[in-house]
Amino acid sequence: MTDHCTQRRAAVLEAAREIAEKARLENRGLTEAEQDQIDSALKESRSLGERINADAKSQQLLGQLDSMARGDGGAMTHHTTGAPLLGLPGEGQRLAFGKAMAAAASTKILPPGSYGQKAVAPSGSVVVPQQFTPDPIPLGRPATSLLDVLPVQVQSSPQFAYLSQSVRTNNAAVVAEGAVKPASIYSVVLVQKALQVIAHLSEAVPRYWLIDSPQLQQFLEAEMLYGLQVGVEAKALADIAATSGIQLQTFSTSVLQTLLKSMTKCEVNSGAPASAFVLHPADFETIQLALLSVQAVEYQGTAAFEPVTRRLWGVPIALSVAVAAGTGWTFAQGAVAINTDSHGVDISWSETSNADDFSKNLIRARQEGRYATSVYKPLGVVKSAFS
């Protein structure tokens, strides 16, 4: 249908062009009938264009759904062209490290029904596509990590660049006739970034343990995926903390009051509302205990806190052990993103990674991926002290 509409649209526009060209060659204006024909052609062209665009969007959506059904995650990723970006192209996805990735890797290395057979190739390597969650924080479900609240952007190259806003000073004001207009300052800087490898190894495992218990392989891979997630979180926080221009909020009476002030500072200076808090579990416990105390009136009761969805003033709270206790983070919408590549997470098993593993019949796993952190709006990040 798209091809037919495209051909029809081209024919309609060509007919309209010929009418206008004929009037031009005869050195005259368009007659009323010719004008009506051209108007009708343009109207039909716009209608056909809308149908073509709608069909293209429909095909793209079907492709994304097919990709999600296959579990390859590829069609839902954002690719870059290498040109610098200003701001975040979208917030529809987050990184996900779960049992499904470990199960996929185990299935590739250990086919179904292979119990009692060779569990792992001596030097087997499997690349598992990085999983993405299309809706980061569904209603009624709490955020469980930093990666649940930061958007992800897939880079087509390990080196990339973006434009980060470093200064935002609005000076717009009433100006008298003939007076000099005030200048506002919106400074941006070019930031060069590169994806970095985050990896770790497992301990040596007797090869026959894996042969006798296929579930052990899935367990180890799931644990290593969790460890990789923690590593990505730690790198992201270190990158954010090292970024010049982020805001600092000193302690103010209580953890709750400090977080509220960080929300205000975030919105006033970045122009975007807070989209997430990231806290250490111990600091989250402090909030819960404060809201359960007789002094909860100081914090306007418990109405501001939603314990089931883990939100405070409507803003989701993600807990992470990568965050230092006594420190909290507040992020504005579009301020920070996690970067990764289209290659995925590599899981390799080897009997020869150590000099004597082969002779001792031991096997080890190595897991790795490439990640980076982009801070598009430093003013949209607030680091709070809770003491």
Structure, explained:
The chain has 387 residues and is α+β, with helices and mostly antiparallel strands. It folds into two domains: 65 residues; 278 residues, hypothetical protein PF0899 domain (hypothetical protein PF0899 fold, 2-Layer Sandwich). It is 35% helix and 26% strand. It is built from seven helices and 19 strands. Strands 3, 5, 8, 9, 16, 17 and 18 form a seven-stranded mixed sheet that branches. It has a seven-stranded mixed sheet with strand order 10-19-15-11-14-13-12, covered by helices on one side. Strand 12 and strand 13 form a beta hairpin. The longest helix is centred in the N-terminal third of the chain and has 39 residues. It is extended. The termini are far apart. About 9% of the residues have low confidence.
CATH superfamily of the largest domain: hypothetical protein PF0899 domain
N-to-C SSE string, H for helix and E for strand:
HHEEHEEEEEEEHHEHEHEEEEEEEE
Rg estimate, integer Å: 28 Å
User: What is the name of the CATH class of the largest domain?
Assistant: Alpha Beta
What fraction of the residues are assigned to beta strands by DSSP?
25-35%
How can the largest sheet be summarized?
Answer: 7 strands, mixed
Structural class category: alpha+beta
Structural domain count:
2
Low-confidence stretches: 67-90, 111-119
State the distance separating the first and last CA atoms. Answer: 65 Å
Task: Tell me the helix content.
Answer: 25-40%
CATH architecture of the largest domain: 2-Layer Sandwich
